[in-house]
Structure formats: structure tokens, C-alpha cells
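Methods — Computational structure assignment.
A single polypeptide chain was analysed. Its primary sequence is given first, followed by the predicted tertiary structure written as C-alpha cells.
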Amino acid sequence: MIQLDPTRMRQSCGGSWFIPCRYVRLNCMRFTRSRLLGSTVLISALVAAGAVSAQVVEQPTSDAQATEVGEIVVTGSRIRRSAANAPTPLIQVTQEEILSTGQTSLIDYLSTIPALQNSTVPSDTTGSSLNAGGLSLANLRSLGSNRTLTLVDGRRHVGSSGGDLSVDVDTIPRLLIQNVEIITGGASSVYGADAVSGVLNFILKKDFEGLEIDANYGQINDNGEATRRISGLIGKNFMDDRLNVYAHAEYEKIDNVDSMDIDWIRRGPIRLAIDADPTNRPYDGLLDAGVFYGVNRLDIVPWGQTTLANLQRPSDLTNPNVPYENCLPGGNFSYAANCFGIMPGKTFWYENGGARPANFGQRVGNVGINRPYNIGGDGMPLGEVAGFSRVPASESQRYQVGTNFKITDSINFHASAKYVTEETFMRGQRTFFDVDLDNDSYGAGQTNSIWGSSAFDLRWADNAFLPQTVKDAIANNRIDIYAPPTAANAGELIGTESLPIARHTFFGPQRSQANTRDIQRYVVGFDGNHGPVGFAKSLSWDLGYTYGKAEIENIERAVDSQRMALAADAVVDTAGIMGTPGAIVCRSSLMNARGDAVIADRHRGGDLRDTEYGRNAIAQCTPLNIFGAGNQSAEALEYVDAFVRVEEMNEQHQAIGSISTELWDFWGAGNLGFAFGGEWRKESTSAVGRSTTAGDRLLFLNGGADFPEVSYESKELFTEVSVPLFRDSKLGEYAELSGSYRWADYSTVGNVDVYGVNLVYRPIRDITFKTSFNSSVRVPNLGENFSPYGETFANNFVDPCATATIAGLDDQETKANRVKNCTTLAAQQGLSFDFAGATATNTDDFRPNYTSGLTGVSGGNPDLQPEESESFTFSTVFQPRFAPGLTVSLDYYEISIDKVIASVSAAGIAANCVSGAELNMDACNSVFRNNPNIPFGVGAPNGDPIGGFIERSFNYAALETRGLDFGANYSWDTADWGKNWGAFDWRLNGSWLIEQKQFLNESDPSDYDELAGSITLSGTNAYPRVRLASSLSWRPNDIWNVNWTADWQSSANIVRARNFINNADSRLGDQMETGAFTRHDITVRYNVRDDLTLRAGVVNLFDAEQRDILGTTIYSNYDPYGRRFFVGLNFRPF
């Protein structure tokens, strides 16, 4: 429920409104062309059953009341009309709701509104995200934040991320917010491009007089991490209240939350494969997966474990849990990861300065050669493996000053200036390295080989830090050789061979990012209201200019990989050539001191001493012990440290003017409305990329070129008209038809035009129907168009041609296409594989082995065209006279978007190459196979794996969503019943997601993924079919207010049941769904006196958690931070 003080009614110049009545409820709802009749029947049935409804709902208002109140401007239109006749469904959030919440940030609160679930919250920007730390981006209908237009007082706001127009809503000062009005449907014809899924319009306070201070302290995690905020707003009227000046300041500090600060992540839940199926048969009757707790990971840990080269005995083909691997093709050893699978007796653990055979505890997830998980043994707890910031530490300052000056009784001047600075810091994912310990890789008088940013060689025999026990084990290592398994028998031991090689795998120093984001915004404008002018009963106009600038600096820390290799190659200076006999030194430094003729630069070629980098690397080299945690000196870690700087800039200019007029009432139905205007806008962006500060260093960091400044301009014209059809006639109480149109000329994509049509019909006072149809566009942002190519990685890559991947496909047509096309690709390289898995043996299968993330490049596409969208809504508002204070609303919506701009991932490009009836050469030309540097498994010594890719965006995808928002508001005072129990306000917001389709298959445009009722395992989004947010407030008197809220979400599919048609082994019921989730919050407010209010509360009262089956991935829908408390105050001394 929304309560407004009738003495503070204001009309804004930015398309907002405030109504002087005690309870104001605005609404959102819709219905669809093809389903109009069925939807109407559904609504009638729900209302008759007492169905409760949605977001914000319209209070019953007779036309007489509307006349008395006066007509206003409602977000979604520039034409003045009564609130009851507003053409566009709305959700409204008040400042009181925002300040009373215990949520960490504004976006955390807004994302609890069902229509805004899956908005980007700060916890979504951690981990592998770059330059995005702490961003808070609204995402209506889960269609993407770049399809939600965010406005402040009806005007554009500069984007908060380089090359993008999405606005960080947490840069909007909380104490200045009067309310937030949300349109949940296309609105490009009224507000311009990007309003595809809707609009958020932040309405700021006007003519504030007095002093208000608001402070809040709240836990953001049940481990004690907290947020602290203090806000102040002061304003004063002058010149007989014609001039108002105000100033606002806000400071906020948020603690960092790491993975191990979260209790359920500390438990280390994980879903692991426990059984593998034969390639040529999709299931074998044994469950494929299980959930385990308290799990350690042994294969990669801080500063590592060492595993001797080995082959593990393959299991029989009817139960292929351990596959066959040939590590000696043609008599030469393959350095594939499967030739170093961790194994009792072969793996060494480091502690107390020495090494011992690793303790494997109880091994779990026993599928594959490298089975790294155990309970009770050595290794790293899973929560620490994912040990990056889950909420970044941040410190923010927000300032705004402004003035409103009434020049004459009909002309106003307004201006404002805002400056926001935010600093965030977060720990990122760890650096990781594979080091082959091989004496034959290079000689004692040479520098070690480097195989990229995360792999290099070391000689084990003379390394100064490698314990002697490990050296002895490597020297005596023998590898068992097994014959290929059969359906009846596991692989038989056929011999052994001496192989003095090992691999040391370790997590190195942790990456981090320190981000500074500075936002400036300046607005100046005039507006006016005039009485009768010619045929116009009244005329309003608005003219303004907005300038915004965002400057983002990101300092990224990681590792200089070449220095890491040089420092790890430590030897003993036995003769004291560098000064101290027996000292441990870098091999390269010793070679330099000896005056060796060549000190090879393994990254650039030539001699290290030929470049300033190389000379410094030799002179400063500090030996680094990479064998075991805690053995690294501070000096050595400082030596391998690397930092790069990224600087981004967005700049925005907007000039907009409009005229709105009410024509006379020509046939007794009401005044005709008409509005028209024009807009000019310029968006610019530029960036200094990582490569500028990285130079030619080999860093464990993404690369990126400079982004020279680019821009686009738009010139736009728009108009609206509203035509009252009848009032108090035999056809009903009221009806109005309205429309809008916008034409725009963009310097990048040319001309676009969009339109909207709305109908409001109130047959009787108690019920109102509304319907709308809107076309919208989203113009490519500058990053999508012009971003320079930079380095990117595809982790956990799954090759679409792998025999096991093809066998797991449900679609038989796609399966047949891949077998045919992959066979063709292999034949081009003179290779042949059993892609169909037709034979009983797997020795002829295609089984590429990608040891680490694939490296590729990604960049912009200047040929992109605008996305095109159509949305349809049908709404019903029920406000029965027999139940004063009750409002029920239903809002059906459909949104479809074509020509969706989507980046095709490396896996997507590779799949598109081979999934169609024929090879898709556009896609095939963007992936590069037959790279000899990537080792490959059975059947082909040379192999045909993917070695690189080009990734960019195209207008190839489509999105569709359809659903029903519903809500109910009911307010009652027990005094009306003769009781003295106080007043109650109840509100229910809800959403039923009928479908959410993503069409992302370039080869088959009709193919789609249905997200409704599921979660995305590859991301962090959840799409529950039903989500309810209920709020009940009790005011026993003027002093106390107690509020209880509950957020309920229906269970979502983790794996859809239809996927079990071909794999019944995964159908363990408790592994299929997330289960329903409910969070309860309590807030208590105490009015100490008229000018002082205290508040306190509990968020997530019953400590609800997401399902353990989801592992350590955070899905923000499910509130991952446990039970936490908050306190605050609001002080208004004058």
C-alpha cells in the first residue's frame, strides 16, 4: 500500500505524479491478441474466486473525484489525465518502503519485486566479471538490463559501464527518492529506444524544505559483515516560496563477503557424477549423480600437489567409470591431463617444508581418470576453491544539489547537479598453473620452456625447492600400460615403462580488482502551465538539457607468468658465483652472472637481455618456492605481481522538449489530449585497454586493446493523442482510446519508428479493463557495435563433435547432423572417428581433452541492426464498492523480441558449425581446429581439437515471455468495527511465469530453451513459475508500526523430466528441483516523537537457504546470506 500526505502533493515536470489521498494504489496488468477471450475468462474466474493481485493498484476514483483532485501526468504518458484513466500499467514503490527494508542496497530490494527478479545485484558482479564490480542494474521480465530503460524524473541517465547504457540504480541518492514508478511493458514510442521490457522512472523530491537525516546499520551476511549508511537532505524556500534550494549528501560503506563467510558454502555441498554410462547406450540402470558434503578437492590447491605420470586401469565398457587413455601413442609420451590423474601412491602432498604421499580419504564422485574429490583426506575445501568475493567491499559518496524557481505563476526553472563516487574492491578467482617436471625439457644451462600464461616446465633434478622424496619418486617412476577394455573385461596390464616425469598443479596468487566509478550528471530546464489558448483548454510544456559523464577505472592484479616461470626455476649457486656459496638463486640470474652466451626469452624469442623487460626480470628475479602453501617469501610474491589498468568513459547529451495540451470536451466524454515533442541525444564512449599497461608482458590476465572514442547521435520526434470515447453512457461509465508514435534517425542504424495503442474501458465503477499494444526497439550500444577485439577464454569447453557429447543428445536429427558433419571435418584433416559411438569399444571415439580454458578473441560488430519488439497487455482492476479498501488487479503480458543481439559463445559457434543439415561455414570459419599444441586423447595422435575462436554478436536470436502479474491491496481500521486493535494494511504482489523462451540456435531458428520453471546451471538466474511477495503492516497506534513480509518462490527444475527419456539414471527426485523457497522479514518502527523515528528488523528470519544440490553457486533469488539484523533512524529536526 502507498500512503501519501495530502499536504505534500506535487506535480513533477518529469512525467511523475503524486495524488492527495490517503491510500493510492497504481496497477499493472495485461492480456493478449490471440488469447484475449481465454484470458478474460481466466480473469473472471480468478476474481470470482477471490484471487489476489499485483504490484500497485489503482484506488477507486469517480470522475467527480478525479475532477476535484485535478488531472496529472502519469509515467508512461505526457498527456494529463486522471489516475484512474492512466493508459499504462504501473508498479509503484515508495521511499518509506525503500528506507524501511533491511536489504543491503536499493537493487537488492527492487529485485524482490517479481517483475524485477534476476536484476544484476552486486553479488552477480564478482568472480570472473571484469570492470563490473558492485554494479546494480534493473532487469525487467528477465529480458536483460540493456532492455530496461532507467530514467530520473523522466530523463535519461548516463550508463555506468563502458560502452553500455544500463544505469547503476544505486547511484541514485536514496533520501532524494520520492517514489519509483515502473512500467512493465514496451514503451519506446513514449520514451525512446531501450524501453523494450519496460521503464523504471525514479521520481525525486521537489521543493523540499527542512532537514532530514537517515542512518542505517545492517548485517549483509549472518557471519557479521555489515553495511553502514548515513544520508542528509536539507532544503530552504526563499522569495515567498518561489525559490527552493536543496542539497543532499550520502555516505555508504559495505563490507566484503567471501565465500567462506557464508555458512552453507562452508559445508561444501556438491553434486558429483558417481556412474558413467556406455557411449553406445545412454543408461545402465545405475544412478549417475549424488550430493556430497564436506568435500575437499585435491587436484589443484594453493601452491599445489605433485602427481607422477601414470596410467589408470580402465574399467570395462559396460561400466566405463574409468575411461581408457593411451599416453604413449607411437612410443612418445602425451602430456594430456589424463596422463597425470591423481592417484594413491602417485600423488604427493606438501606440508611442514616436506612432502608425503597424499591422503585420499573417502574418494567421492568416482568417474573419470582425474577423480579429485574426497572426504576426510587432503585437499582444499570446496568453499575455498571458489574463494572469491561474493559481495565486493565498497565505499560510496553521493552528492546532489538543485534548485526550483517559479519565475512567474506559469513558468518554472529547475536545475540540479549530481556527483557520485564509488570505490569497490573484490578478490577474484585464483591464478592456476600446470608445471611439467621433466629433465629432458631443457638443459641445465637453458631457461625453462613456457607454454602460455598458465603452463611452464621445470627441471626436477636440480630444483632447489623440490623435496628429495619427490625427486626420488620421479626418478623411480614407472608407468603401467593397459590394453583397451572390452565389454566383459577391464583393461589388462600388458607392461610397464620407466617414465621420470611428473606434473605439479597449483593455485597461485589470487587475482583482485579495485574499481573506481565517478558519475556526474547535470540537468537544467524550464516548464510551464498555461490556461486556455485557442482551441486548447490548457497547455503544458517542458524544455530541458541533460549532461552525464561516467569515468571508470579498474586496477586488476594477477601474475606475470613469465616471471613466475623464471622465479620457480630456482637452483643452488654451489660455487657462489652470485656472491654466496650455497645460496638459492634464479637459474636465469646465475646464467647472467656466468656470462652465458644465450639466455633465451621463451615468450618473445631472442635473448632476455635484449629488452628492458628481460634485463629487469633477470636483475630482480627472486627465487619462488611453488611447492606447498606457506613456503613463499614476500619478496618472491612481489616479484611475480602484475597490475594493469583499464579506464573507461561514457558521455551523454540529451536535449528534449515537449508540449502537452487538453483540447475542449467536444462530445461530453472528456477533454481530448494531445502531446508532441522532439529529442536530440548523443552517446559517446572510449577506453584505455589492458594492453596499454600490460605491454608485451605475458600476464595471467585478459588482454584488451584501447577503445578509441566513438559516438552516435539520434534525432527524434514523438507524439501522443488520447480520445475519450464516452462517459456515463449505456455502454459503460467511461472509455478512452489513446496512441503514441515516435520516429528516430540514428547515425549508426538509420531510421526507426515505433508506436503504441491503448484502450481503457470501465463498464461500471467497480471494474476497469485496460489493454495495450506497443512496438519497441533497442539500438545496439556502442560496445556491441565498435568494441575492439580483445582476449577472452572459454572455460569447461565441451566439444560438439565429442562422441560422448553426441551420444547425450535427445534430438535425433541434430545427432545425425553432427555425426555427418563432424565426420566431414575430420576427413578434411585425414582423420576418422566413431562419432556415433556405434562400436562397443571406445578406442575409436572422438575424445578431445581440453586441459584448460580455450583462448580466443571477442569484439564488436558494426553491422548490427536494432532489436525489434512487440508487447501486448490486458489488465483488469477490481475495486468493489461492497469492500472499501480492497483492490484486486490482474495483468497479463506478452513480449516478443526479434533480431536479438546475442554473442555466440565458443561452444555455440562450434555447435552451430556442425548441428545443421550441412556445415555452417560462417560458424566453422570462426573456430580453428587441428591445433597441435592442444593434447588430444584416444585414437588420433595429432587430433582435431579446437585451438581458438572468434566471438562477436549478431542479430540472430529471439526472446519471448508471457505471464500474469497479480496483486491485492486491502486496508482496514478496526475502529470501523468498533474495536481498538489498530489499522492493518495488506498487500500481495505476485507473478505467474507462463513461458520464457530463448531462441539461441543459429542453425535452427525454431529451436528454443524454455526457462520458465527452471534455473540456468551455466549462470545464476532462476525462473520460478510463481513468485509471491506478501506484506502485512499493523499500526496499533501512532507510535508503533510492525511489518511482516514474505517472499515465496515455487520450485524450479534443475533438470527437466523430459531429459530422462534417454537417461533414466538421473531421475533421482531430490536432484531434479530446487524446492520451494520462502524468506520472512520483520520490521518494527517506533515514532519516538514527531521528528524522530527508530526502526529495527530481521531479514530472513528463519535462515532459509538455497538447496545444497546447487553447490556453491549463488542464485541471488534465494537470498544466500542467512538471518541478519538491521537498525536505523530518521530524524527531521525542522
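Note: The longest strand covers residues 501-530.
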